[in-house]
Amino acid sequence: MYYKCIAIYRKNAYTVSEEKTMMTLRLDEQMEQEIEQASSVLRISKSELIRRSVRNYLDGQIGKIDPWEAGKDLFEQFDSGMQNLSIDRKRIAAEMVAEKFK
pTM of the prediction? Predict the structure, then answer.
C-alpha cells in the first residue's frame, strides 16, 4: 500500500509565540484526496484542516469516556452460571484445582 506523508503543526500551548512543532503523518491515497477536497471546499490549508480535526476529536474523546462505556461490550459477555462466584471465588478455585489433580 502506498502512503504519502503530510506534515502538520500544532501551536505550543505553553508559550505566547506562534512556535509550532512539526509532525509526520502517513495517509493512504484516498484519505489524502478527501483531505485535499475538504480543504479546498473550506478554503483552508490541509494542515489547518488536520489540526481542527484532531482538536475536535480530542475535545470529544479525552476525559469523556467513563469506565462503563469503555468496557460495556465486554461486560456480561461470558456467564459461568454460578451465582455465588464473586463471594466464594477462593473456595471454588481450590475445588477446581483439587478436582484437576485427583
Answer: 0.46
Beta bridge partners of 20: 11
pLDDT digits (tens, 9 = 90+) for 6-62: 555 555 444 444 677 888 889 999 999 999 999 999 999 999 999 999 988 888 766
**Summary count for the chain: helices (H), strands (E):** 4, 2
What residues does each domain of the chain span? 3-64
All cell numbers assigned to 90: 477462593
Most distant CA atoms of the chain, gap in Å: 75
Cell numbers at residue 70, please? 469503555
Q: Does the structure show a pLDDT above 90 at 63?
A: no
